[in-house]
Structure formats: structure tokens, C-alpha cells
Design brief:
The complex is a heterodimer.
Chain A lengths: L3 H9 L4 E6 L2 E5 L5 H10 L4 E10 L4 E9 L13 E9 L4 E3 L8 H12 L2 E3 L24 H9 L12
Parallel strand pairs in A: 2-5, 6-7
Antiparallel strand pairs in A: 1-2, 3-4, 4-5
Chain B lengths: L2 E6 L11 E7 L2 E8 L7 H5 L8 H4 L7 H16 L5 H30 L2 H22 L8 E2 L2 E2 L7 H13 L2 H9 L2 H7 L7 H6 L5 H4 L7 H4 L20 H25 L21 E9 L2 E9 L5 E7 L1 H14 L7 H7 L4 H5 L1
Antiparallel strand pairs in B: 1-2, 2-3, 4-5, 6-7, 7-8
Helix pairs in contact in B: 3-4, 4-5, 4-12, 4-14, 5-6, 6-12
The chains are: A alpha/beta, B alpha+beta.
């Protein structure tokens, strides 16, 4: 059964790709420009819980896929259509990854965007503090990108650390 | 008054785990709080892209040290969804029972942390002892006490050993029999009420705006529970309720946790009564070294003891995940909500608020 929101979304936002996995999971791919309006529309329709902002490095297509997962705060006895989860994704260029922040829509986007800035190098315009969140040191390229070679990095950096000589007790 | 900067943690008596907060204080009042995670960042999500689907299980369970079982479950659910695997009926019940045991163990650990931080040493030691009884059960079932690696795609690793159901029942009776003692020692204690009532209060709107889940919402009267709204395993087979409180403060959160523990114990008894006596506990899956999962993406979620736990997982058709991202409940609780809830509170209540929000640092860092 098609989710009632799918029809609304298709009529309001024209170039939108909808893939409904089942009644509870609706995957939307929207153009970069209309992503914020889709998020605002979902929020105003009652889907006001931003679960996650994620990013997938589609290195073969030279793009980043930004993924916003939105669902509703509901209790058990509401209509089943309100229990759906929307996975809204959009593509940004890999060369100059920039996007606008969605903190005005969802306050809890702040640490997620900070993390993506650190791990993927995506700049969220309008974000109040894009300072490092998790990592200890600077990396030549952001470490979660697919072209970051963990093994080569580890060999290069940590092989240079000399072994600690164990003192012989005997 | 002069504004000072104060570092709270990572080494502090009120701080559980490796996490720190930079506080701006005026006298005793907190003006601004900056959460500072990252001490436990191990890059699991990157490492998982370099390992096969099955090799990732020893990594995922280490994401939450206190409660590895729900992370295993959500990862297994993600792989099952991508590969289209069905779980046998008996395995569903075993998963539910096992996860509820894990929830009780995790809440007891949380109770230890909270009581210890407030100085209720006796209640804390009791909670640790009772958690240990549950770890004995896990050891018998899985061979390990903390990181069990018991759930796998398609079901669980092994069936209950002979007589295990009776052991679960007698252990839970031993713990449940202590609830009146816990109440008189801790939950109804006037000192606990004085320390926790009205501290770190969040309204329902605030909690919802900032991504609060689990007991943070349950303490504001909202019955938001993934086990109810998106039932997985065998949670829709038995009748149970979501306990809620309306205060929104640390006191309500702790009582919501206590009632959830009691509800979990009742649920385990019902699950044991209704579970099928015989049957397979695992669907056959391909050779793990040659297991290619069809390309696709999936988002699965379950209710861990801290709230909604999600997993966004992408496969490119290979033998390794292309991208794994865990939506852990402590992430919003420990960063957005904690920074907000600390504003205007006393320095002495930082640990109180943080532990009542149930922040577990390894979950934030991953």
C-alpha cells in the first residue's frame, strides 16, 4: 500500500524519486535545492523527529549522498501511517562539498553536522560551530572518505614511533 | 560576578566513562556548557567498511560497553533486512528474552552509577551485585560475561542450555524480591528526592525538539517506545505496558527506569510462558567468507535501554558493508540535551543530570 504522504510529496515537489521499501520505510531522493522544503514539509506534517544525518561517499559517481532520517514522535495507538520513517537523501558535489545547515528546522542536527564536517569535510553553511568533535589530530583528507587509506596512513604515521625498550629485571 | 572556565572530566568522581564538559561558571551557577566527546573514538564505522559482514560483530558490541546486546541486535536486523533473511519463531522469543535481560542488567548498571554519584554506596553495591547475577546467566548462555556476540543474522548462536529457563526465573525472583528494599533504601529516600526532584527538568516539547528518546521522553509522560510502535523480535506476542512519569526531572527519569526494569521482568516471565518449546534458532546463512549481500540501503531501529537505537546500513553488493552509521541514543542526550539542561544549574548537579540522562560516552564516540 502506498503511504498517503508519498502522493502529497510527489505533487508538491516535482523531481522527487520515491522508493517505498514497505509501509514503514520510504526512501526519497530529492534535488539539493528542495531538500530543506521537504524537511520542513515533513516536520509540519507531524514527522518531527530527526533520527540521524548520515553521509555516504559515492566515490564512483564523484558525489556525496547526504541522508536525513525523519520519523514521528508517536504512541502506540495512532494511525499506522504516522509510524513510517522517511529516509531523505540528496547529492552534493564531491569537489566542493557545501550544503546549508538544517539547525533552524531540527535543533539536534547540530552535532551530526559537526561530525560530518569533521569526518567527510562537508561544510554546512550557517552552522554556528564547525569545530572538531571526535578526532584527536588533523588528517590529510577527512578520514571517512573512501579515498582515505587507513592502512597506509597507519603504517606511515605509527611505524615511525620507536618501540619502548623493556627493562630486563633479571 | 567573574566568569570562570571549569573543566569537568574526563577524570572526575561524578563522571562515568571518558567524556568531559567545559563549563563556564559564575560562582556556583553554570552559564554555558560545552560537551567534549571523542576520548573513546575508535573509528568503528570506518573499520567496519574493511571487514566482512560477520567479522563486524566483535566490533559492534564494543560500541556500547554497558549494553552490547542491543547493538548486536540492530546490526543483525540491518543485515537481515538487506539480505532478506527471516528469523525462526523460537529465535525471536530468545532474542526478546535476551534483550530484556540485557535491559535489566544495563539499568542496574545505570542505577549503580547514579547511586554511587549521589553517595548512596549501599544501593550502588546492591545494584552491581544483582547485575553480576545476570552476567552469570549470560556467561552460561554465551560463554562471555560482557561482550556476548550471541545474536547473529538469521537468529541466535545457540539454543538455551538445559534448565536455563528455570535459572532465569529464579535469578529474576532473587532480584525482584529486593525491589521493596531498593525502594526503602533509595527510591523513597528523602535525600534522593531532595537531590533529584526539580533537577535537570525538561518539558516534553524541549525533549522532543532536541531529539530526546527513551526514558527522557518517558519521564515527560510520552509513551514513545520502538518496541510498541515498530515491533521487532517477539514484543508483539505478549501484553505489556510502557511506564511513564510526568515530572520531566531527574527524579522522574530514575523512577521511569525502575518501573521499566520491573516491567521487563514481568515481560520475560510472559515470554517464557508463550515461547515455542521446540524449533530451530537460526536460519542457515551462506558461508561468511563468501557472503555477498545485494546492493541496497536500510534503516532499522530498536529500543535499547537508553532509547531509540538506529542503524543506517548501505551495501554495494559486496562482501563488506559500504557504509554503516549507528544512531545511538546517547548522541542527542549527551550533546544537545545535556548542554541545554546544564544551563543555569549548580556545579554540584552536573553529574546528577548527566547520569540521569544516561549518557554513555562510547556510544557517542563510536
Amino acid at each position: 500500500m502506498t503511504h498517503p504522504m508519498v502522493k502529497n510529496l510527489k505533487s508538491m515537489f516535482k523531481p522527487i524519486a520515491v522508493k517505498q521499501q514497505d509501509e514503514r520505510r520510504i526512501m526519497l531522493n530529492v534535488p539539493k535545492d528542495s531538500l530543506m522544503s521537504v524537511l520542513i514539509f515533513l516536520k509540519n506534517s507531524g514527522y518531527a523527529h530527526l533520527g540521524l544525518i548520515s553521509c555516504v561517499d559515492r566515490i564512483a559517481d564523484n558525489k556525496f549522498e547526504l541522508v536525513y532520517i525523519v520519523s514521528a514522535y508517536v504512541e502506540e495507538d495512532v494511525d499506522d501511517s504516522m509510524k513510517a520513517t522517511f529516509v531523505v537523501s540528496t547529492f552534493v558535489s564531491r569537489k566542493d562539498p557545501r550544503f546549508i545547515t538544517c539547525i533552524p528546522v531540527f535543533i539536534n542536527a547540530e552535532p551530526y553536522e559537526r561530525e560530518l564536517h569533521e569526518l567527510y569535510g562537508i561544510v554546512f553553511e550557517g552552522h554556528p560551530r564547525l569545530t572538531p568533535l571526535l578526532l584527536e589530530r588533523e588528517y590529510p583528507i577527512p578520514p571517512m572518505r573512501k579515498d582515505f587509506d587507513s592502512r597506509a596512513y597507519v603504517e606511515e604515521v605509527f611505524d615511525t614511533v620507536p618501540f619502548v625498550d623493556q627493562e630486563d629485571d633479571s | 560576578m567573574r566568569e570562570l572556565e571549569l573543566y569537568y572530566g574526563p577524570q572526575h568522581l561524578g563522571m562515568v566513562g571518558n567524556f568531559s564538559i567545559t563549563l563556564k561558571v559564575q560562582g556556583d551557577r553554570i552559564v554555558k556548557a560545552d560537551a567534549n566527546p571523542g576520548y573513546l573514538h575508535r573509528g568503528f564505522e570506518k573499520l567496519m567498511e574493511l571487514r566482512t559482514w560477520m567479522q563486524n560483530f566483535p566490533l559492534v558490541c564494543r560500541i556500547n560497553v554497558v549494553e552490547p546486546d542491543h547493538i548486536e541486535l540492530v546490526y543483525a536486523m540491518g543485515v537481515e533486512r538487506l539480505a532478506g533473511i527471516e528469523v525462526p519463531e523460537r529465535a525471536k522469543f530468545i532474542r526478546s528474552i535476551y534483550c530484556e535481560l540485557a535491559r535489566v542488567a544495563s539499568h542496574l548498571f545505570g542505577l549503580w552509577a547514579y547511586a554511587n554519584m549521589l553517595g548512596f554506596d549501599t544501593a550502588a553495591q546492591w545494584a552491581m551485585y544483582h547485575r553480576d547475577l545476570l552476567l552469570d546467566l549470560f556467561e552460561e548462555l554465551t560463554g562471555a560475561r560482557v561482550y556476548h556476540i550471541y545474536i547473529r543474522p538469521g537468529g541466535v548462536r545457540r539454543d538455551f542450555p538445559r534448565g536455563f529457563e528455570q535459572k532465569i526465573v529464579s535469578t529474576l525472583h532473587a532480584i525482584g524480591g529486593k525491589v521493596p528494599d531498593y525502594n526503602s533504601l533509595f527510591f523513597e529516600n528523602r535525600l534522593f528526592k531532595k537531590r533529584a526532584k526539580g533537577v535537570g527538568t525538561l518539558t516534553r516539547e524541549e525533549a522532543m525538539n532536541m531529539g530526546g528518546v527513551g526514558h527522557t521522553l518517558k519521564a515527560t509522560g510520552m509513551k514513545y517506545d520502538i518496541r510498541k510502535i515498530e515491533p521487532y523480535a517477539a514484543y508483539d506476542r505478549v501484553d505489556w505496558d510502557v511506564p511513564v512519569y510526568t515530572g520531566g526531572d531527574a527524579w522522574s527519569r530514575l523512577l521511569a527506569i525502575r518501573d521499566e526494569m520491573i516491567e521487563s521482568v514481568h515481560m520475560i516471565f510472559k515470554l517464557l510462558d508463550t515461547m515455542p518449546a521446540k524449533g530451530s534458532v537460526c536460519t542457515k546463512t551462506p558461508n561468511p567468507f563468501k557472503w555477498n549481500i545485494p546492493a541496497g540501503e536500510a534503516y532499522v531501529r530498536c529500543e535499547s535501554s537508553r532509547g531509540e537505537l538506529g542503524l543506517y546500513i548501505v551495501s554495494d553488493g559486496g562482501d563488506k558493508p559500504y557504509r554503516v552509521h549507528f544512531r545511538t541514543p546517547s548522541y542527542s542526550h549527551g550533546l544537545t540535551i545535556l548542554e541545554h539542561a546544564l544551563q543555569g544549574e549548580n556545579i554540584a548537579d552536573v553529574g546528577n543530570i548527566m547520569i540521569s540522562l544516561y549518557v554513555v560516552a562510547p556510544e557517542i564516540d563510536r
